[in-house]
Amino acid sequence: MMIIGEGMISYPLIILNFKVYRESIGKNAVRLAKYAEEVSRELGISIAVAPAFTDLKMVVDSVSIPVLSQHVDPYPPGSWTGSIVVEMLREVGVVGSIVNHSEKRLILADIPVVLSRLREHGLISVLCTDTVETTKAGATLSPDIIAIEPPELIGTGISVSKAKPEVVTKAVEIVKEVNPHVHVLCGAGISLGEDVRRAIELGAEGVLLASAYVKAKDPKELLKSMAEDALKAWERRKHHLNL
Ligand code: G3P
Protein backbone atom coordinates (compact mmCIF):
# COMPACT_ATOMS: atom_id res chain seq x y z
CA MET A 1 0.00 0.00 0.00
CA MET A 2 1.33 3.38 -0.97
CA ILE A 3 1.60 5.78 1.97
CA ILE A 4 -0.30 8.90 0.93
CA GLY A 5 1.68 11.51 2.83
CA GLU A 6 5.11 9.96 2.49
CA GLY A 7 6.27 12.14 -0.40
CA MET A 8 4.91 15.24 1.34
CA ILE A 9 6.89 14.80 4.53
CA SER A 10 10.61 15.27 4.96
CA TYR A 11 12.92 16.04 7.85
CA PRO A 12 13.39 18.24 9.78
CA LEU A 13 9.64 18.27 10.29
CA ILE A 14 7.54 20.76 12.23
CA ILE A 15 4.04 19.62 13.21
CA LEU A 16 1.64 22.32 14.39
CA ASN A 17 -1.11 20.88 16.55
CA PHE A 18 -3.94 23.41 16.58
CA LYS A 19 -5.79 21.62 19.43
CA VAL A 20 -9.13 23.42 19.99
CA TYR A 21 -7.99 26.85 21.06
CA ARG A 22 -10.34 29.72 20.31
CA GLU A 23 -7.47 31.15 18.26
CA SER A 24 -7.17 28.05 16.08
CA ILE A 25 -10.67 26.86 15.25
CA GLY A 26 -12.91 27.70 12.30
CA LYS A 27 -11.53 30.44 10.00
CA ASN A 28 -8.48 30.81 12.24
CA ALA A 29 -7.48 27.25 11.38
CA VAL A 30 -7.27 28.19 7.71
CA ARG A 31 -5.35 31.39 8.49
CA LEU A 32 -2.80 29.52 10.63
CA ALA A 33 -2.49 26.76 8.05
CA LYS A 34 -1.86 29.31 5.30
CA TYR A 35 0.98 30.93 7.26
CA ALA A 36 2.46 27.47 7.69
CA GLU A 37 2.16 26.83 3.98
CA GLU A 38 3.88 30.13 3.19
CA VAL A 39 6.79 29.41 5.54
CA SER A 40 7.07 25.87 4.23
CA ARG A 41 7.25 27.16 0.66
CA GLU A 42 9.55 30.12 1.38
CA LEU A 43 12.11 28.09 3.34
CA GLY A 44 11.68 24.68 1.75
CA ILE A 45 10.92 22.92 5.02
CA SER A 46 8.29 20.32 5.78
CA ILE A 47 5.51 21.68 8.00
CA ALA A 48 2.33 19.74 8.77
CA VAL A 49 -0.76 21.05 10.52
CA ALA A 50 -3.27 19.23 12.71
CA PRO A 51 -6.54 21.20 12.91
CA ALA A 52 -9.63 20.19 14.87
CA PHE A 53 -11.73 17.49 13.23
CA THR A 54 -14.49 19.84 12.10
CA ASP A 55 -11.91 22.06 10.35
CA LEU A 56 -10.05 19.30 8.54
CA LYS A 57 -11.92 19.47 5.24
CA MET A 58 -11.74 23.26 5.06
CA VAL A 59 -7.98 23.21 5.74
CA VAL A 60 -7.29 20.34 3.33
CA ASP A 61 -9.09 22.32 0.61
CA SER A 62 -7.18 25.53 1.41
CA VAL A 63 -3.53 24.47 1.60
CA SER A 64 -1.19 22.03 -0.06
CA ILE A 65 0.96 21.18 2.97
CA PRO A 66 0.27 17.89 4.79
CA VAL A 67 -2.74 17.92 7.11
CA LEU A 68 -3.11 15.50 10.00
CA SER A 69 -6.01 14.62 12.24
CA GLN A 70 -5.49 15.16 15.98
CA HIS A 71 -7.07 11.83 16.81
CA VAL A 72 -8.57 8.68 15.35
CA ASP A 73 -10.47 5.85 17.01
CA PRO A 74 -9.65 2.15 16.62
CA TYR A 75 -13.04 1.13 15.22
CA PRO A 76 -14.10 0.17 11.72
CA PRO A 77 -17.06 2.09 10.27
CA GLY A 78 -20.26 1.12 12.12
CA SER A 79 -22.22 1.71 15.26
CA TRP A 80 -19.76 3.93 17.17
CA THR A 81 -21.51 7.21 17.99
CA GLY A 82 -19.28 10.27 17.94
CA SER A 83 -16.23 8.40 16.74
CA ILE A 84 -13.65 9.24 14.09
CA VAL A 85 -12.68 6.23 12.01
CA VAL A 86 -9.76 5.95 9.60
CA GLU A 87 -12.10 5.73 6.61
CA MET A 88 -13.42 9.22 7.47
CA LEU A 89 -9.86 10.56 7.46
CA ARG A 90 -9.24 9.01 4.03
CA GLU A 91 -12.42 10.60 2.77
CA VAL A 92 -11.49 14.06 4.04
CA GLY A 93 -8.04 13.91 2.44
CA VAL A 94 -5.64 14.12 5.38
CA VAL A 95 -2.27 12.35 5.20
CA GLY A 96 -2.41 10.76 8.64
CA SER A 97 -3.18 11.21 12.30
CA ILE A 98 -1.73 11.97 15.68
CA VAL A 99 -2.37 8.94 17.90
CA ASN A 100 -2.61 8.79 21.70
CA HIS A 101 -1.93 12.46 22.42
CA SER A 102 -1.77 12.90 26.19
CA GLU A 103 -4.89 15.05 25.98
CA LYS A 104 -6.67 12.30 24.00
CA ARG A 105 -5.28 9.05 25.32
CA LEU A 106 -6.16 5.65 23.92
CA ILE A 107 -6.20 2.50 26.01
CA LEU A 108 -3.07 0.43 25.44
CA ALA A 109 -4.82 -2.38 23.56
CA ASP A 110 -6.22 0.09 21.02
CA ILE A 111 -2.90 1.62 20.00
CA PRO A 112 -1.66 -1.24 17.76
CA VAL A 113 -5.14 -1.47 16.23
CA VAL A 114 -5.15 2.21 15.31
CA LEU A 115 -1.62 2.03 13.92
CA SER A 116 -2.39 -0.93 11.71
CA ARG A 117 -5.70 0.56 10.53
CA LEU A 118 -3.85 3.76 9.52
CA ARG A 119 -1.17 1.71 7.76
CA GLU A 120 -3.74 -0.41 5.92
CA HIS A 121 -5.29 2.76 4.57
CA GLY A 122 -1.98 4.30 3.57
CA LEU A 123 -2.00 6.98 6.26
CA ILE A 124 0.88 8.19 8.42
CA SER A 125 0.87 7.68 12.19
CA VAL A 126 2.36 10.12 14.71
CA LEU A 127 2.32 8.21 17.98
CA CYS A 128 2.63 10.36 21.10
CA THR A 129 4.44 9.01 24.15
CA ASP A 130 5.13 10.60 27.51
CA THR A 131 8.20 8.87 28.95
CA VAL A 132 11.27 7.04 27.72
CA GLU A 133 9.66 3.74 28.77
CA THR A 134 6.46 4.28 26.79
CA THR A 135 8.58 5.50 23.88
CA LYS A 136 10.42 2.18 23.85
CA ALA A 137 7.15 0.26 23.90
CA GLY A 138 5.75 2.54 21.19
CA ALA A 139 8.72 1.97 18.90
CA THR A 140 8.07 -1.77 18.88
CA LEU A 141 4.73 -1.01 17.21
CA SER A 142 6.55 0.68 14.30
CA PRO A 143 4.58 3.90 13.89
CA ASP A 144 5.91 6.21 11.19
CA ILE A 145 6.76 8.87 13.75
CA ILE A 146 7.01 8.95 17.54
CA ALA A 147 6.57 12.27 19.31
CA ILE A 148 7.71 12.31 22.90
CA GLU A 149 6.01 14.95 25.02
CA PRO A 150 6.35 15.10 28.81
CA PRO A 151 2.77 16.09 29.74
CA GLU A 152 3.82 18.31 32.64
CA LEU A 153 5.53 20.70 30.18
CA ILE A 154 2.67 20.91 27.68
CA GLY A 155 1.36 24.45 27.36
CA THR A 156 3.86 25.84 29.89
CA GLY A 157 6.21 27.62 27.49
CA ILE A 158 9.05 25.68 29.13
CA SER A 159 10.63 23.70 26.36
CA VAL A 160 11.27 19.97 26.70
CA SER A 161 14.53 20.46 24.82
CA LYS A 162 15.75 22.86 27.52
CA ALA A 163 14.08 21.49 30.65
CA LYS A 164 14.45 17.76 29.95
CA PRO A 165 17.15 17.31 27.31
CA GLU A 166 17.99 13.83 28.61
CA VAL A 167 14.44 12.67 27.85
CA VAL A 168 14.89 13.65 24.21
CA THR A 169 18.33 12.06 23.80
CA LYS A 170 17.26 8.84 25.52
CA ALA A 171 14.05 8.63 23.51
CA VAL A 172 15.97 9.05 20.25
CA GLU A 173 18.54 6.47 21.28
CA ILE A 174 15.98 3.90 22.31
CA VAL A 175 13.76 4.33 19.25
CA LYS A 176 16.69 3.99 16.87
CA GLU A 177 17.80 0.85 18.74
CA VAL A 178 14.34 -0.74 18.51
CA ASN A 179 13.50 0.39 14.99
CA PRO A 180 15.76 2.80 13.08
CA HIS A 181 12.97 3.48 10.55
CA VAL A 182 10.80 5.24 13.11
CA HIS A 183 11.28 9.02 13.09
CA VAL A 184 11.45 10.85 16.41
CA LEU A 185 10.04 14.28 17.22
CA CYS A 186 9.76 15.97 20.58
CA GLY A 187 7.25 18.43 21.92
CA ALA A 188 5.92 20.30 24.96
CA GLY A 189 6.64 23.93 25.67
CA ILE A 190 8.49 24.55 22.38
CA SER A 191 8.22 28.33 22.06
CA LEU A 192 11.27 29.76 20.29
CA GLY A 193 13.60 29.05 17.41
CA GLU A 194 16.31 28.10 19.88
CA ASP A 195 14.02 25.42 21.42
CA VAL A 196 13.72 23.85 17.99
CA ARG A 197 17.45 24.14 17.34
CA ARG A 198 18.17 22.45 20.68
CA ALA A 199 15.68 19.65 19.92
CA ILE A 200 17.49 18.88 16.68
CA GLU A 201 20.90 19.07 18.33
CA LEU A 202 19.64 16.47 20.82
CA GLY A 203 18.83 14.10 17.96
CA ALA A 204 15.14 14.78 17.32
CA GLU A 205 14.10 14.99 13.68
CA GLY A 206 11.68 17.80 14.34
CA VAL A 207 9.13 19.11 16.79
CA LEU A 208 5.43 19.05 17.60
CA LEU A 209 4.04 22.26 19.07
CA ALA A 210 0.78 24.05 19.75
CA SER A 211 0.27 27.00 22.10
CA ALA A 212 3.29 29.12 21.18
CA TYR A 213 2.24 29.14 17.52
CA VAL A 214 -1.51 29.34 17.97
CA LYS A 215 -1.32 32.18 20.50
CA ALA A 216 1.60 34.12 18.99
CA LYS A 217 1.13 37.80 18.16
CA ASP A 218 2.78 37.10 14.84
CA PRO A 219 2.56 33.33 14.22
CA LYS A 220 4.17 33.51 10.79
CA GLU A 221 7.25 35.36 12.08
CA LEU A 222 7.62 32.90 14.96
CA LEU A 223 7.28 29.91 12.67
CA LYS A 224 9.80 31.39 10.28
CA SER A 225 12.38 31.76 13.02
CA MET A 226 11.71 28.20 14.20
CA ALA A 227 12.05 26.89 10.64
CA GLU A 228 15.29 28.80 10.05
CA ASP A 229 16.81 27.47 13.25
CA ALA A 230 15.62 23.95 12.44
CA LEU A 231 17.23 24.04 9.02
CA LYS A 232 20.51 25.46 10.33
CA ALA A 233 20.72 22.84 13.08
CA TRP A 234 19.86 20.11 10.56
CA GLU A 235 22.62 21.23 8.21
CA ARG A 236 25.16 21.29 11.05
CA ARG A 237 24.07 17.81 12.07
CA LYS A 238 24.44 16.46 8.54
CA HIS A 239 27.85 18.07 8.27
CA HIS A 240 28.88 16.65 11.63
CA LEU A 241 27.72 13.17 10.67
CA ASN A 242 29.33 13.54 7.27
CA LEU A 243 26.08 12.82 5.43
O1 G3P B 1 0.93 18.33 20.54
C1 G3P B 1 1.66 19.43 20.93
C2 G3P B 1 1.69 19.61 22.37
O2 G3P B 1 0.93 18.87 23.19
C3 G3P B 1 2.58 20.61 22.94
O3 G3P B 1 1.78 21.68 23.29
O4 G3P B 1 1.36 23.99 23.75
O5 G3P B 1 3.30 22.84 24.82
O6 G3P B 1 3.35 23.37 22.40
P1 G3P B 1 2.49 23.06 23.58
Task: Describe it.
By secondary structure, the chain is α/β, with parallel strands linked by helices. The protein has one domain (13-70, 91-242): Alpha-Beta Barrel (TIM Barrel), CATH 3.20.20. Helices cover 42% and strands 14% of the residues. It is built from ten helices and eight strands. The protein has helices at residues 27-43, 56-62, 86-92, 110-120, 132-139, 160-163, 165-178, 193-201, 211-214, 219-240, and strands at residues 13-17, 46-50, 68-69, 96-99, 124-129, 145-148, 183-187, 206-209. The protein has an eight-stranded parallel β-sheet with strand order 2-1-8-7-6-5-4-3. The chain is globular, with a radius of gyration of 16 Å. SN-glycerol-3-phosphate is lined by residues 17, 101, 149, 154-155, 187-190, 208-212. SN-glycerol-3-phosphate binds next to strand 8 and helix 9.
Per-chain topology:
Blueprint: E1 13-17, H1 27-43, E2 46-50, H2 56-62, E3 68-69, H3 86-92, E4 96-99, H4 110-120, E5 124-129, H5 132-139, E6 145-148, H6 160-163, H7 165-178, E7 183-187, H8 193-201, E8 206-209, H9 211-214, H10 219-240
Parallel strand pairs: 1-2, 1-8, 3-4, 4-5, 5-6, 6-7, 7-8
The protein binds SN-glycerol-3-phosphate.
SN-glycerol-3-phosphate is lined by residues 17, 101, 149, 154-155, 187-190, 208-212.
Topology as a string of helices (H) and strands (E): EHEHEHEHEHEHHEHEHH
Protein structure class: alpha/beta
> What helical percentage do the residues reach?
40-55%
CATH superfamily: Aldolase class I
Q: Number of DSSP strands?
A: 8
Name the beta content range. 5-15%
- Report the sheet with the most strands, covering strand number, pairing sense and barrel closure: 8 strands, parallel
